[in-house]
Amino acid sequence: MRDNPPRLAILSPGDRQARKNATAANSRFADLFAAFAAKRIHVEPAIYHDDFCDEVREQLIRVDGVLVWANPIIEDGRDRSVLDSMLRDVTAAGIFVSAHPEVIVKLGTKEVLFCTRDLGWGCDTHLYRSMNQMMQELPPRLAAGKARVLKQYRGNGGDGVWKVQLPANSDGRRREKTPRLETIVSVRHAKRGCIEQQMPLGEFYRRCEPYFFGNGRMIDQEYQERLPEGTVRCYLVHDRVVGFGLQAINALYPAPPGAAEAPEPGPRLYRPPSLPEGQALKRKLEQEWLPAAQRLLDIETESLPILWDCDFLFGPKAAGGEDTYVLCEINVSSVAPYPKSAVPRVVEAAIAQAQAARQKRFSDRRETV
Predict the structure, then answer these.
(1) Fewer CB in a 10 Å sphere around the end CB: N or C, the chain?
(2) What is the pTM of this model?
(3) Per-residue model confidence (pLDDT) at position 1
(4) 327 and 264 share a domain?
C-alpha cells in the first residue's frame, strides 16, 4: 500500500449543487488536475461548505494530502473557523494539509508585516491592538505629513485596507498640526470602485471600529510614494520563487491631477521565475528575507505552503540607484490565479508531501502493532 501513488484532494468553497456537479474538468483548477493526471496521481475535488463540513471531513480522511483554496472570509460573512477546525482534525489523522491553519496564522495575516518589519523587506510599520491605541498614535503620524496605509488583521480583496492622510494646504504642503476628531482627512478604501473621500478623522475611526471586534487589530504602514510604478508579486512553492505577477495599476493607485477617480486596477501579467528584472528580488527573498522570517516565526521549510505569494512595492532608491522593495502583503490561503510556471512545482511538491504523509501513517501503524 505504501508503494501506491498518493491520493490528493483540492478543496475550495461552494454550495451543495457545486459539490454535486464538481469534476476535474469544470474546476477552476483544471490545469492542476490535468498536471496530476499526467503523472497518474488521483486527485479529487472537495467542495466545502460549513453546512456539510462532516461530509467533507470523511472525504479528506480517505486521501493522503489536501490542497486548500479558501479565503479568510469565505462568503456571506462566514470566516474559516469551522473549516480550520476540521482541517486540524484531518492533520491529526496523518493527512497532509496545505496551507495548514497554523501556518496561515503565522504568515497569512497582516500582522506579519509588523512582526517582520526589521528583516529587510519592511518599512515604518506599527500595530494597533485597540481603537484607543489607534486614536492616540495615528494622529501624530499623520501630522508628520506622510500618508499612512491601515490594514485590518485578516481580509481579502482590499477590504479593510485604507489610505489616510491630511489634505494638502493651498501651497501643496501637508498640515503639520496634530489632527483632532473633527479634523478633515483624505481617505481612500482599497476595495474595487472606491474613490478618495474627505471626512472628519472621527468618522474614519467609526468606519474602522468593526476591525477591532473580537481579536481584531490594525496594521499601519507608511505609504510608498513609488506605488504608481506598480507592484511585484513573487509566487513561491515552499521556499523557492516559481513565478512573478506584475501589476501596473492597483487598488490604491492615485487619481491623475484634477480627476476624481483613479484608473481601474489593471491585469496582473504573469512571468516565469527566470524574469531578468526579477532576479535581484528573487535572490533577496530566497537567500535573506525568507530564511530570516522562517527563523523568526519558527516555520520549517516543509511546513511552508505549497503555493503562496509575497506582494512587494518599490521602496526608495538605494544610494547606488538600485531598487529596494517593501513587503505589503502575504497571501497563503487562496492563491489563484497563478503563473503557468508554478504548476509543475506545485504538483511535484504536493506529491512528495502526500507520499511522506502516507509513509508516516504506515510506519506509525506498524509501530503500534
Answers:
(1) C
(2) 0.92
(3) 46
(4) yes
